[in-house]
Amino acid sequence: MLQPRWYYGDRPCESRTSPEPSTLLVKVLGFSFAGERTRLRVRVNEPSRSRTFPAQHSRRLLPCPRMKLPADAIIAPEKLTRYLLVRQARGDKSAFLARAGYTLENADQLLGDLREQLLPLDATPLHSTKFGQFYEIRGALTGPSGVTLRVRSIWMEENLSGLTKFITLIPEK
Fold first, then answer.
1. Quick one: which of 4, 8, 43, 172 is 20 to 30 A from 27 by CA?
2. pTM (2 decimals)?
């Protein structure tokens, strides 16, 4: 469940009250995905000029903020060699990655391709937990065999360390 957060411009803030009078505050309520366009469902808290329809009850759709994740994000090799490229009883991704030519023998190739092909793409914020903020990057991953896979990758910016880490890769449906 997404925890609602208030934003002042592009900066999160702790309360509904704006640091400056007559400034637009936005409360993120949820996300909706429609093809390639991601939308946020928000509540806008702005000075109301109407008694019959106060602004705090208005809801609007705004384009979802996109950002670039740091190029030095951590991609643990163990995540690839012990999870993604190994056959699993549930949620196996090794067969999907094998279609593009990724195997345990060329795990370094997958690590490099994640860093070069996916990490430079725009990231969309997903949700936040007590551990950190999660992001999603959707894109194409072209493997050593030349086959292109449509994937979603999940990343997390940790609250304690501030580091951005690769979490998992999900086949795009």
1. 172
2. 0.63
